[in-house]
Automatic annotation (TrEMBL):
Pathway: Amino-acid biosynthesis; L-histidine biosynthesis; L-histidine from 5-phospho-alpha-D-ribose 1-diphosphate: step 5/9. The keyword Cell membrane does not apply. The gene is hisH1. It comes from Pelotomaculum schinkii. This is Imidazole glycerol phosphate synthase subunit HisH. Its main location: cytoplasm. The keyword Isomerase does not apply. InterPro entries: Class_I_gatase-like (IPR029062), GATASE (IPR017926), Imidazole-glycPsynth_HisH (IPR010139). One of its GO terms (biological process) is L-histidine biosynthetic process.
Length: 204
């Protein structure tokens, strides 16, 4: 079973429905212990980085995330959930993140229409089980004003061009982050959720 973390930020039901369409069992939970016990974990989210970190810490979910990651369970951050995996965000000052990936979250360059909203291509940088069956330069649905800037370029799985060539998927060992919304990206996005579900079944 996959636990979708409910910390008051995000369209949790649409992520759950995306997994269900692909035959993957997923439950929404606000209980840290259920997250720790799950076979795989998803951290979704939309909204402000600082508010999200406050909610994660006050609920004890930040510790649950670290325990799940350290246990080697497949872990997926979506949109704001990807950004929270990094050291810090420059949104409204500097806010410390979960620190699972090294790097910062930065605002998209001036002069662009922000948020970056709509379909855009993801250029695959290296093969990974999460991207099985995903053609090069496939288009996905984005809604964001900030992007992740990893210190370690080896974690970058795909890049997307929007004023800057940013990391749209990152991954290392059991942990992944996706800037776009796979649950809103038609069949190609649902394939990514299916791939993640397959990884959970193989692992745990």
């Amino acid at each position: 079973m996959i636990a979708i973390i409910d910390y008051g930020m995000g369209n949790l039901r649409s992520v759950q429905k995306g997994f269900e369409k692909m035959g993957v069992e997923a439950v929404v939970t606000g209980k840290p212990q259920q997250v720790v016990q799950a076979a795989g974990v998803v951290l979704p989210g939309v909204g402000a980085f600082a508010d999200a970190m406050t909610n994660l810490r006050s609920s004890g979910m930040d510790e649950a995330v670290h325990r799940a990651v350290e246990a080697g369970k497949p872990f997926l951050g979506i949109c704001l959930g990807q950004q929270l995996l990094f050291d810090a965000s420059e949104e409204w000052g500097l806010t410390r993140g979960l620190g699972i990936f090294r790097g910062r979250v930065r605002r998209l360059p001036d002069g662009l229409k922000v948020p970056h909203m709509g379909w855009n291509q993801a250029e695959i940088q290296r093969a990974d089980p999460l991207l099985e069956g995903i053609p090069q330069a496939s288009s996905f649905y984005f809604v964001h004003s900030y992007y992740v800037d990893p210190e370690e370029q080896a974690v970058v799985l795909t890049r997307t061009e929007y004023g800057v060539r940013f990391a749209s998927i990152v991954g290392r060992e059991n942990v992944y982050g996706i800037q776009f919304h796979p649950e809103k990206s038609s069949g190609i996005g649902l394939r990514i959720l299916e791939n993640f579900g397959r990884m959970v079944k193989k692992c745990c």
